[in-house]
Amino acid sequence: MTLWRKEWSKFSDDSIKTMKKHSDKTNEEREWMCYVYDVDGTYELGSVSYGGESRIEVSPQKKGAQDSMINGLSSKDRKWTIHGHPLKDGKIYTGRQYFSSTDICREYVRSRDNDEYVAQYLVYPHKQVDSHNNEEVFHNRVRVLVFPNRETIFKAMRSSNPQVDPSSITVQSGQNSQVKQQDGSIRLQNEAGVDWFAFQEALGRLGCMGIIDLEGPSSGSTYFNSEGRIMAGNFAGIIAIGVIMIGLSKLHKAQPFKSENIQVIEDLVTHYH
């Protein structure tokens, strides 16, 4: 079993159901986040916090106290964070189906400098066709990203960004900003010169990144390649590819939740040769 799937397998059924619940109302266009707690080897979620459509800020101290009081979770068991990217301006943006430079850079530096194991989770809406009725629906997907140790992330960085010195990246130099090109297009660029989308795909080839469909095969999902596969070689900082939001009447209808209905969408290590 790949590393990312081992990490995913630790979530309880209740936690997975909660992820879906927080992301079902994508039309509300607000980000959400929870802390992930390791309770005797099983991952449980703390209380949800909401932000705007592109930003969320929380106080770790206050949020930890809330999780302790409401959920009975201990700060000593807190491990990771999970957050959701909603629709933005009524559209799906491909770039938001990946971890942003803000999400990923700080954890990269943390893993590199401390030779530390770090995991991250991103829930996002994906538009696809229901094989039962050929209608377009939204499915909630989860991208799982693992930084196992310094050696592995250096390997991924060198293969995806050979022009970058993995040791020189800082939280500040790795943060993307919007840069207007000569042809009038807008690209995401950072001082360190890192393509973070390519880096995530490289981790996938090492078994450290994958995608889960929370709705599962019973709800009509089919096998999809990673969203990044169709853009390999030309994504390179493109901000987004928008898709117009379908009517709310076509949104996925709730199904009884069972963890065995979850479908693996992309385990990159099994597709790259």
Describe the structure.
By secondary structure, this protein is α+β, with helices and mostly antiparallel strands. It has one domain. Helix content is 24%, strand content 25%. The protein is built from six helices and twelve strands. Strand 8 and strand 9 form a beta hairpin. The longest helix is centred in the middle third of the chain and has 14 residues.
- Give the count of structural domains: 1
Hey, roughly how much beta strand do the residues contain?
25-35%
What is the makeup of the main sheet? 8 strands, mixed
Assembly state? single chain
The low-confidence parts are: 218-226, 228-260, 269-273
Q: What's the mean pLDDT score?
A: 81
Strand tally is: 12
Helix content: 10-25%
Q: What's the tally of helices?
A: 6
Topology summary:
Blueprint: H1 3-8, H2 13-24, E1 32-39, E2 42-45, E3 49-50, H3 60-71, E4 78-84, E5 91-93, H4 101-114, E6 118-129, E7 136-147, H5 150-160, E8 177-180, E9 186-189, H6 196-205, E10 209-213, E11 242-244, E12 263-267
Parallel strand pairs: 4-6
Antiparallel strand pairs: 1-2, 1-3, 1-4, 5-11, 6-7, 7-10, 8-9, 10-12
Helix pairs in contact: 4-5, 5-6
